[in-house]
UniProtKB/TrEMBL annotation:
This is Patatin. GO terms for molecular function: hydrolase activity. A motif (DGA/G) lies at residues 154-156. Residues 9-167 form the PNPLA domain. GO terms for biological process: lipid catabolic process. It comes from the Bacteria. It comes from Algoriphagus formosus.
C-alpha cells in the first residue's frame, strides 16, 4: 500500500451527467484509491466540493435525488441571464456549512471563466460556495456570479477538464469525462443539433487535455442524457461505477495508486 502518493482527480462539467462522477469515485474508493486533491468544473466542481467535504459518493447521490434543485431557482430580471443562481446559495450552505476551502477534508480547486478578461480562473482558498456557483454558471441561463471585480461564468467555457491545478503537484492524475457522445445516424431537429454541437465543443476542450492524464475514465454514451435529466440520476451513477470497474480490470496498473484513505463508503 502506497499511502504517500499524491493522486489528483479532475472532474469535467456536464450538467446532470456529472452525477456519473460519483459512480467513478465510488468505484475508485472501493478499489482503495482515494484522491488527495480534486479539481472540477461546473458539475464536477459541485460533485468535487461535496466529496471533498467528506460525503461519500452514495450519500451525495441520495442528497441529489431527494433535493428538488430546481425549486430553488428564481427568475432574473436581467439581460445577463434568465435565472438567478444566487437563489440556491442557501441550498449549498445546508451541506457546505463552513463555506471555506481550507475546511475541506480533501483539497479542492474549481475552475471558472472570467467573462470580461476571457480567461480561465482557479479557486482553491477562501470562500467556497461562490466559486462553486460561478464554476457551474451556465452562460445565458444564469446571471454571472460576481466575485471581487470579476464577472464569472461556467468554467467549462474555457476549461472543461481542469488538470492544470494538478499538474506538477500530483504524482498521478486521473481525468474523468461525463460527456461521451454515441454515434447518431439521424439529427431530427434543431434542438438536438445545437445540443450535440455544444457537447462536441465541450469534448474537444476535454480531449485536448487528455494527454496530461495518467488515466482517463469516460463512461460511454453519456452525451445522450439531457443536461437537466435529473430523473436519470441513478442510471448516471451506475454508468460511472460500471465503467470504472471495467477500466480498472483493463488497466490494472491503476491499482498501484492504492492509498490508505479515510473516507467512509457507507450507503
Amino acid at each position: 500500500m502506497k499511502s504517500n502518493l499524491k493522486i489528483g482527480v479532475a472532474l469535467s462539467g456536464g450538467g446532470v451527467r456529472g452525477i456519473s462522477h460519483l459512480g467513478v469515485l465510488q468505484g475508485l474508493n472501493e478499489a482503495g484509491i482515494f484522491p488527495t486533491h480534486v479539481s472540477g468544473t461546473s458539475a464536477g466542481a459541485i460533485a468535487g466540493a461535496m466529496y471533498c467535504e467528506g460525503y461519500s459518493p452514495t450519500e451525495i447521490l441520495k442528497i441529489i435525488v431527494e433535493t428538488n434543485y430546481f425549486k430553488f431557482l428564481r427568475p432574473a430580471i436581467s439581460w445577463k441571464g434568465i435565472l438567478k443562481m444566487s437563489s440556491i446559495e442557501g441550498l449549498f450552505r445546508t451541506y457546505l456549512k463552513h463555506n471555506d476551502f481550507s475546511q475541506l477534508k480533501t483539497p479542492l480547486t474549481v475552475a471558472a471563466t472570467d467573462i470580461k478578461k476571457g480567461k480561465a480562473v482557479y479557486f482553491s482558498e477562501g470562500e467556497l460556495i461562490a466559486p462553486v456557483m460561478a464554476s457551474s454558471c451556465i452562460p445565458g441561463m444564469f446571471e454571472p456570479i460576481v466575485i471581487g471585480n470579476r464577472f464569472l461564468i461556467d468554467g467549462g467555457v474555457l476549461n472543461n477538464l481542469p488538470v492544470e491545478p494538478l499538474d506538477g503537484t500530483c504524482d498521478f492524475v486521473i481525468g474523468v469525462n461525463c460527456n461521451h457522445l454515441p454515434e447518431e445516424s439521424d439529427i431530427k431537429n434543431m434542438k438536438r443539433l445545437i445540443e450535440r454541437s455544444v457537447i462536441m465543443s465541450m469534448n474537444y476542450n476535454v480531449y485536448s487535455r487528455q494527454a496530461k492524464c495518467d488515466y482517463f475514465i469516460e463512461a460511454p454514451g453519456l452525451g445522450k442524457f439531457g443536461v437537466f435529466d435529473i430523473k436519470k440520476a441513478s442510471d448516471l451513477f451506475q454508468a460511472g461505477y460500471v465503467e470504472t470497474l471495467r477500466y480498472i480490470e483493463e488497466n490494472p496498473s491503476i491499482l498501484e495508486l492504492k492509498n490508505s484513505g479515510e473516507k467512509s463508503l457507507s450507503a
